[in-house]
Amino acid sequence: MFDLPTETAKQRRAYSKFVKYLKGQGFLMFQESIYMKLSINESASKGVMAAVKQNLPPDGFVAVLTITENQFAGIEILLGDFQTDVVHDDSRVVEL
């Protein structure tokens, strides 16, 4: 999850570059400024973390929260009347 400044053209470029990097590495947007990626084990997770650290933007705030697959499966998504394309089932494969 991150909060990056976008006040100047340079900051907007850094923001865009960081988001493009995340998407290129297989991260999926969970919510605006919150991206997620499944790692097969703790070692792979540490490798992902090291790569993200190497691609940090110069300004702003980036935080990483590591949770297990079971913890992630326990997330309850509460929605009102807002329409979204978020998948609300527990299947592992989603075909679009």
Strand order of the largest sheet: 1-4
The separation of the N and C termini measures 25 Å
Order of helices and strands: EHEEHEH
Using the alpha-carbon principal axes, give the shape. globular
| Strands, total number | 4
Mean pLDDT: 88
Number of helices: 3
Helix content: 25-40%
What are the low-pLDDT stretches, counting only 5+ consecutive residues below 50? none
Summarize the main sheet.
Answer: 2 strands, antiparallel
Strand content: 5-15%
Rg from alpha-carbon coordinates: 15 Å
Helix/strand structural class: alpha+beta
Structure report:
- A two-stranded antiparallel sheet has the order 1-4. Strands 2-3 form a two-stranded antiparallel sheet.
- The chain contains 3 helices and 4 strands.
- Strand 2 and strand 3 (34-36) form a beta hairpin.
- It has helices spanning 9-24, 42-54, 69-73; strands spanning 2-3, 28-31, 34-36, 61-62.
- By secondary structure, the chain is an alpha+beta fold.
- The relative contact order is 0.16.
